[in-house]
Amino acid sequence: MNDLESTMASIDRRQMLKLGAAGLGGMALADLQAAGSQGATGIHHTAKAKRVIYLFQSGGPSQVDLFDHKPMLAKHHGEDIFKLVEKEGRLTGFTNGHKIHPVIGPKYKFSRQGGSGAWMSELLPHMSKITDDVCTIRSVSTKPVNHDPAMTFMQTGHGLPGRPSMGSWLSYGLGSMNRNLPDFVVLVSRGDLGNMQPLNNRLWGSGFLSEKYAGVRLRSGAEPVLYLNDPAEKPIKDRREILDVINKLNEEELSRSGDPAVATRMAQYEMAFRMQSSIPDLSDLSDEPESTYKLYGEEARKPGTYAFNCLMARRLAERDVRFIQLYHSGWDHHFNLPSHLPKRCKETDQASAALITDLKQRGLLEDTIVVWGGEFGRTTFSQDGKVKADYGRDHHANCFTTLVAGGGFKPGLVHGETDDFCYSVVRDEVPVHDLHATLMHQLGIDHERLTFRHQGRDYRLTDVHGKVVRELLT
Prior knowledge:
Layout (H helix, E strand, L loop, with lengths): L2 H8 L2 H21 L17 E7 L5 H4 L4 H5 L34 E4 L4 E4 L12 E8 L5 H10 L9 H9 L9 E5 L27 E3 L17 H22 L2 H24 L6 H7 L9 H13 L4 E6 L8 H25 L6 E6 L3 E6 L10 E4 L3 E6 L8 E2 L1 E2 L6 E3 L2 E2 H11 L9 E3 L2 E3 L15
């Protein structure tokens, strides 16, 4: 009998299970605590980008009032849209029962901008100046036609809750680029935004992936992360000693049970400890020069505003956070669009352009993808079947515009075309799954290979769909 056989013969079943659990638990803990860029699958091919900043405009910005200029709308103002186009696609319950659906021509002036000649509305004077840095995709389409499933679909690739969000997939697939901040950070604009759709934390949740891949929401104000500060104001040395004791207890439990949730908890404690020193530095803007506020606007001084969050996004990108998600609500303009749309544009226009400009000046835009867009677009016809000054527009899933800058997307490209009434895509459609596949490709991921086995099947962000739209890429 050799040494291994002798050792195996001398231990009972209980000891064997304990040793096995300890070994598995130790490997899980080592994996969770490891720093570096290697994730669950790693890079499949050479990446053009390292990180994503997603400026999500919740509610559905009106593409025909902002990006997709359609002179025929003014010419046929007041006429029934379905006498002008072939009816296809879903209508919502708001407008499905109307006898007519009158076309409403945009009241805002459009002009061609930059060398690309992209059409931009007068409501976006700052974004108009950077069209040559932006890839304008006018032919994005989606499946759901109502807010909650459409937001869920855009964030997770599926209309029903329970799937991991895009940021979680990237965190799982690529791992962390820093030790002191989460891989996936969420910022939500606050204030009286009107027409506000609820933002559930499952939109940045990890679904069936480990909780460590979920987005961490940073709050506005003096305490960006709740319960991060020690109320007893103990020195950092004391906190480290306390955490070491807690970790020893958790290690014993991990050795006993082999439960991966214990290892996840330990990793979360370690991350919280590191964030105690890194978050105050992140949120302290005293080192920002006056030129920053000239670029982003004075609103960037106020925590919780969209401009402040855009500035925070740049600071997070500098610190190598993998996925930064901004949510700005108030774009759901069923009624009185002429009153509400200019307000939303004023809140977001300067800061959105400033972020892209700032990243470019710092050499970060080359490997950072910035996405600007909502869950769907708006109809070219009136919400309530009437022509009136305070008109609104209903949800529209057939076609809408999304802007993408940096990370190897072609700057100045205007991709895709809709019909004369912006009802359907007529050239180069980009479904949501194709957009996701293309974003992942630029990050070095083959969207068909980044999978997770759950309940007997392999899941992925693009479900069973998606192709890389290479025409969008340099």
